[in-house]
Structure formats: structure tokens, C-alpha cells
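Whiteboard transcription, Tuesday session. T.W. wrote the C-alpha cells on the left side:
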């Protein structure tokens, strides 16, 4: 059973826990053409710059603009991608935030989407995820609020925020699609879930990880259980179901072949009776 100290209970009930702030949330601070506290898909030495500073701000004096631009020499589209934290590895948090909010504008061509992908991690385990795919263009600053859905107990210690333009099938972005974002924030708190399942239920980190194109996922069952093991992309879309059947207690291995998928971060989730756990895996081609 999860036990909370009196101080923790007090802070939860009265919302007095300090909410971590998104780094450079209003994109006011830039160094060398890059937004402080963020990693971008810019390739400065060869002047491929899909992410730039904009003076068209929701508040303050600037916002961030991302535009699909041509790659040097080849002319292939390069999508704007931004990810929060040093090296894009996220930033420290200590609250189960309920949602990620902010403001955006966009012009999305030929089925392109503005992808808002947010994850909450405890160590290397993903315990909460939020995703939204925006498809409608808008020339006015528009608010968004993406709920964080928690699939495991615990308080996260790291938050990863990723915003990008995605083509209709994920990688076929169209030249000149663009977005602007400003005033990002973590909002609200989500209640603490009870522990799920006995300790002898477990989901291990896939191996190898990163992988290309196959990896093995190992999990343990305390009792005979109905098991579902599925893989999801960063938008929360199911891309593979590896197991969907009744299985006996013990240790099981499932093989995931990602030959038909693009490189990136994915999540795999185990449902076994009342036990739920989610972890992250990285496909690197």
C-alpha cells in the first residue's frame, strides 16, 4: 500500500506543492538562435533552420516559430521539432501535473499535423502521457490543454515536452507548414493512484534499447491472467499489439519487430488483470 506522510497529504489536499515551471515557457530567452532550455531540429553549420524566434507573441515580446524547410542540397523537407530540457531529456518535476497548457497558431498544409507529445517519468519508467494532434490551421492565438493520463502510481521526477510538425503518415511533411507556440505551463494536479497488482507482477525494460528493428520485452505474472501487451507512438496511437490472451503465471518474453515504423520514442504498456505498467523504448534506424 502506498503511504503518504502527513505533510504530503496536507500539500495534496490544499494544492500547496510547488508546481515545476516549463523552462523558458514564453520563449523570451534565446542564445545563438536557439531557445534557452530547449533542443531543436536546427542544423546550424549547414543553415537548415526550421526553428526561429518570432516577435508575434501571445504575451511578452517573442514566441517560437517552427517551419518545414528544405534540407541543404537535397531539398527534402526538414520538420521543426522542439524538446524541453538539456539534450532534450526533459526537466525535473515533483508533482503529478494534470495537464500541459499553452497557446498556438499554425498553418498546416496537405494533411500535416501539429503534434503535442508530453510524458511524465519516474526514473526511466513512463507513468503518464499526454498527446494531441492538431489538424486545423488558425491565424489567431488559440489555447490548448492536453490532459496527462497516468497509468501507474508514483510521483514523476522528469517531464518531457515535445512539439513538432508531422506529415500525414508521420514523416512526409509538406514545405512551408508552420506553427507558433507560446506561454507553455504545467497545470493542476492529478490524484495518486494506489499500487496496482502484487509485487510479483512486473514489466522489464526492453532489451536491447535503443533497438533496430527488433527487441524483446519480458514480463512476469503472479497468477494466470488475461494479458494485453501493446505498443503506442508519441501521439498515443496504438501501433502494435504483441499479446492479447490468457496466460499462465511465470515469466514471458514478447518480441517486437518495428521494421515498418519510423525512428523515435514509443511506449509499451502491460495490462494483466488489475496490474498496469508502461515503459519507454527507442527505435533508432
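and on the right, the sequence the group agreed on:
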Amino acid at each position: 500500500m502506498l503511504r503518504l506522510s502527513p505533510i504530503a497529504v496536507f500539500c495534496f489536499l490544499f494544492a500547496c506543492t510547488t508546481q515545476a515551471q516549463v523552462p523558458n515557457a514564453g520563449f523570451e530567452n534565446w542564445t545563438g538562435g536557439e531557445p534557452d532550455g530547449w533542443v531543436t531540429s536546427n542544423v546550424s553549420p549547414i543553415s537548415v533552420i526550421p526553428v526561429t524566434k518570432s516577435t508575434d507573441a501571445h504575451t511578452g515580446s517573442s514566441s517560437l516559430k517552427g517551419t518545414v524547410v528544405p534540407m541543404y542540397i537535397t531539398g527534402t523537407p526538414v520538420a521543426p521539432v522542439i524538446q524541453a530540457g538539456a539534450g532534450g531529456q526533459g526537466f525535473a518535476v515533483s508533482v503529478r501535473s494534470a495537464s500541459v497548457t499553452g497557446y498556438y497558431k499554425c498553418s498546416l498544409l496537405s494533411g500535416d499535423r501539429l503534434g503535442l507529445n508530453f510524458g511524465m517519468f519516474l526514473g526511466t519508467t513512463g507513468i503518464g502521457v499526454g498527446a494531441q494532434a492538431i489538424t486545423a490551421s488558425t491565424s489567431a492565438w488559440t489555447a490548448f490543454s492536453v490532459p496527462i493520463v497516468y497509468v501507474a502510481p508514483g510521483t514523476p521526477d522528469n517531464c518531457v515536452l515535445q512539439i513538432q510538425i508531422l506529415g500525414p503518415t508521420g514523416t512526409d511533411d509538406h514545405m512551408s507548414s508552420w506553427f507558433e507556440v507560446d506561454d507553455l505551463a504545467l497545470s493542476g494536479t492529478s490524484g495518486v493512484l494506489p499500487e496496482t497488482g502484487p509485487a510479483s507482477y512486473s514489466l522489464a525494460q526492453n532489451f536491447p534499447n535503443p533497438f533496430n528493428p527488433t527487441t524483446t520485452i519480458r514480463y512476469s505474472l503472479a497468477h494466470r491472467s488475461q494479458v494485453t501487451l501493446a505498443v503506442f507512438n508519441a501521439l498515443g496511437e496504438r501501433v502494435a499489439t504483441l499479446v492479447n490472451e490468457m496466460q499462465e503465471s511465470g515469466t514471458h518474453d514478447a518480441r517486437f519487430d518495428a521494421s515498418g515504423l519510423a525512428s523515435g520514442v514509443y511506449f509499451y504498456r502491460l495490462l494483466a488483470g488489475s496490474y498496469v505498467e508502461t515503459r519507454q523504448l527507442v527505435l533508432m534506424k
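Someone added at the bottom: The chain is about 5% helix and 50% strand.
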